[in-house]
Amino acid sequence: GAVVSQHPSRVICKSGTSVKIECRSLDFQATTMFWYRQFPKQSLMLMATSNEGSKATYEQGVEKDKFLINHASLTLSTLTVTSAHPEDSSFYICSASVSWGTQYFGPGTRLTVL
Amino acid sequence: DQQVKQNSPSLSVQEGRISILNCDYTNSMFDYFLWYKKYPAEGPTFLISISSIKDKNEDGRFTVFLNKSAKHLSLHIVPSQPGDSAVYFCAASGDYGGATNKLIFGTGTLLAVQP
Predict the structure, then answer these.
(1) Peptide bond into B40 cis (omega under 30)
(2) What are the pLDDT digits (tens) for B48-74?
(3) Which one of A20, B59, B92, B105 has the largest count of C-beta atoms within 10 Å of its C-beta?
(4) Cα distance from B42 to chain A (closest Cα, Å)?
(5) CB atoms within 10 A of CB A28
(6) How close B89 gets to chain A, by Cα (Å)?
């Protein structure tokens, strides 16, 4: 149980385009989903917390107009990187909260912006 | 300010021996701690957790110890297996800033189990 999927697993795009990443909880309903970013050899950095049916809460330093998060249902959250630039290239990981404090993670999405 | 620290970036252990991974935290409001295992280009996998009302939690080969007075936790893996080779992250959460299940991650420790 507690399986989280992400799509796509890898995406390469041109600078200036937008990219959407989906995160789904497959066998449970998640009221809260989280989006992280991991740069090489660094820890996971929380970008935003997403609650179903409400606006996401962004961490300090994360541009909400650049990283659009939608949590339309209890099993789906999407992250859209708008007007992507090479510095946005990173490994994006989502997680879903099942019980208090425990998060289950998706497999991640490798974004490369040319 | 790194609130969760893993001071050892890497650890090498022989197969069959014990692996001990350490984690320190600074925020006394943290009251729930977790360990995750991560392979390259994959999402973290939940291993084991402990709440602050306990000082030990065991699950198979994995045991987590919590020393609240020292703000220190450790993960013991015994016996270690080559398949345990991965990066291990500790994470903490608590009722601070209103987000009760937001996780703060350490920087990770790369464990290499030698056959």
Answers:
(1) no
(2) 999 999 999 999 999 999 999 999 999
(3) B92
(4) 5
(5) 16
(6) 8
